[in-house]
């Protein structure tokens, strides 16, 4: 057996365990930052004197930067070594986290969040690669189970951790807390992982493809983020951004399909199993994260919840997911993954449809119930979807397929964040106009006037009630659309053939 085959023997069992915990912790930190700022946006917006809509740039800038950097992970690891790149990315992530916390303006925090995302993008796939590298084959399933749990738990725990910190300390600390974790992971990686460093090689990079990727994604995301404020395509700026995004996207596809060493290997889309799997994955993550984004915003802006309690509502999903994850892992080898995915996504869609009937008078436990029940389904679609997509391509294409899968998942989150908050705001305006048209406030005005309220006070109270109801109706519309998307995703997976029994994840950078 070659040294590369049994490289895990370079570490003692204790060192492997410690290294595994460090890698899982680093992954948890990065995926946590996808959602930790969600409940803190009102705090940050108020502190900086910006609107909550502008504050969503803090969320989307991180996700987009992370998505763009994910396809570069394989090239960076080959060029500089996976351990060196992991350590460098952790250092950069920690430094940009501090700069985010020190930011005094929207432009500064968005730039720093982009830097944080660029450094965080490679950490997730490289931590996965290193886990597979340091553990022997018989222990890799357990190690990847730990890694998968941090991937699952991080986004769900982000709102509650961010809410508690924002309410009890200040929003700056949602970024500062990354520094001690990053320092710990850097020193632990330097002490434990250097013996398992990969060989380096001068491999070419697709510079044109990378520029086109950044260009069309940047134009698209800016269009989505500012479209509402500019009345969408009534503004020439939005039209220009839309045209540039389409041109850049088409040029990107043409170039990548003809490039010998593409930054994103689009050829894997020829496999129907991969295509249907990643489309289902993107739809599921977009619909799932729409709730994670909109619920804290609604509860804080309209329902009088603090950031902490808004985060607790969403955290019930993580509790249930932790309970069901071991069951999902055991069923993986016994049940067709397409059946597991389909049932789980249908379950998620039904819970989302349940939430589409929330009202402005709903109590805490009535919101917590569907959040908790839907959590049981999460592991049953997240883990099997990876097996389905990667099991549908040839073994030598696994690395490209895994990178593209991570890219599309992260982009789905970024785009869903922009679209959901835009749709929520537009839906609120439409619902308010409809309510105002059918409202008969005479009895309410008379009752309030009888207790001594002035005309202006009465109008303000009625306006507030209408606004609150309109926001609740708009949230229900978001949930209804999300449920329909999930039902489509549940059907899509059946276009894929059953994947091969054994999927080699060791190449999935």
Automatic annotation (TrEMBL):
Topology in membrane: Multi-pass membrane protein
Database matches in Gene3D superfamilies: MFS general substrate transporter like domains, Multidrug resistance protein D
Localization per Swiss-Prot or TrEMBL: Cell membrane
All copies of domain Major facilitator superfamily (MFS) profile, residue ranges: 19-501
Domain of life of the native organism: Bacteria
Pfam families the UniProt entry points to: MFS_1
Transmembrane segments: 18-37, 57-77, 89-108, 144-165, 171-193, 205-224, 236-257, 278-299, 305-327, 339-356, 376-394, 406-425, 477-496
Keywords, sorted A to Z: Cell membrane, Membrane, Transmembrane, Transmembrane helix, Transport
InterPro entries reported for this sequence: EmrB-like, MFS, MFS_dom, MFS_trans_sf
Broad class of where this protein is predominantly found: membrane
Entry GO CC: plasma membrane
GO molecular function, a single term: transmembrane transporter activity
Family: Belongs to the major facilitator superfamily. EmrB family.
Name of the protein described by the UniProt record: DHA2 family efflux MFS transporter permease subunit
Species of provenance: Sphingobium terrigena
Phylogenetic classification of the source organism: Bacteria, Pseudomonadati, Pseudomonadota, Alphaproteobacteria, Sphingomonadales
């Amino acid at each position: 057996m070659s040294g590369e085959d049994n490289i895990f023997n370079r570490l003692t069992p204790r060192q492997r365990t410690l290294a595994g915990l460090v890698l899982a912790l680093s992954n948890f930190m990065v995926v946590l930052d996808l959602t930790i700022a969600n409940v803190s946006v009102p705090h940050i917006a108020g502190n900086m004197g910006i609107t909550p809509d502008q504050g969503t740039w803090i969320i989307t800038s991180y996700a987009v930067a992370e998505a763009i950097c994910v396809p570069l992970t394989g090239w960076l690891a080959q060029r500089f070594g996976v351990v060196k790149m992991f350590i460098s990315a952790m250092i950069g992530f920690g430094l940009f986290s501090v700069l985010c916390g020190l930011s005094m303006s929207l432009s500064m925090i968005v730039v720093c969040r982009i830097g944080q995302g660029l450094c965080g993008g490679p950490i997730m796939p490289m931590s996965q690669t290193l886990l597979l590298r340091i553990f022997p084959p018989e222990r890799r399933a357990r190690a990847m189970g730990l890694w998968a749990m941090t991937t699952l738990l991080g986004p769900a725990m982000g709102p509650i951790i961010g809410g508690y910190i924002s309410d009890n300390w200040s929003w700056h600390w949602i970024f500062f807390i990354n520094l001690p974790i990053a320092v710990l992971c850097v020193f632990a990686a330097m002490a434990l992982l250097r013996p398992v460093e990969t060989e380096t090689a001068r491999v070419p990079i697709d510079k044109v493809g990378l520029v086109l990727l950044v260009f069309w994604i940047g134009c698209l995301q800016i269009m989505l983020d500012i479209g509402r404020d500019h009345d969408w395509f009534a503004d020439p700026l939005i039209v220009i951004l839309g045209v540039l995004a389409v041109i850049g996207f088409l040029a990107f596809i043409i170039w990548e399909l003809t490039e010998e060493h593409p930054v994103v290997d689009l050829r894997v889309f020829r496999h129907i199993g991969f295509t249907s799997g990643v489309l289902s994955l993107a739809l599921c993550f977009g619909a799932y994260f729409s709730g994670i984004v909109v619920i804290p915003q609604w509860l804080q802006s309209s329902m009088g919840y603090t950031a902490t309690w808004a985060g607790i509502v969403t955290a019930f999903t993580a509790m249930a997911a932790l309970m069901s994850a071991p069951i999902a892992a055991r069923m993986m080898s016994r049940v067709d993954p397409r059946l597991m995915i389909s049932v789980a996504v249908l379950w998620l869609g039904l819970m989302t449809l349940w939430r589409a009937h929330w009202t402005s008078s709903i109590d805490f436990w009535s919101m917590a119930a569907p959040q908790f029940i839907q959590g049981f389904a999460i592991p049953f679609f997240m883990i099997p979807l990876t097996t389905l997509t990667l099991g549908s391509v040839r073994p030598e294409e696994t690395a490209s397929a895994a990178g593209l899968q991570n890219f599309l998942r992260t982009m789905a989150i970024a785009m869903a964040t922009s679209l959901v908050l835009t749709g929520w705001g537009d839906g609120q305006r439409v619902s308010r106009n409809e309510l105002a048209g059918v409202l008969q406030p005479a009895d309410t005005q008379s009752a309030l006037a009888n207790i001594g309220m002035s005309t202006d006070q009465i109008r303000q109270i009625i306006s507030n009630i209408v606004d609150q109801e309109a926001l609740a109706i708009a949230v229900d519309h978001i949930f209804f659309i999300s449920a329909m998307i999930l039902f489509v995703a549940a059907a899509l997976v059946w276009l894929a053939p059953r994947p091969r029994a054994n999927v080699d994840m060791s190449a999935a950078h």
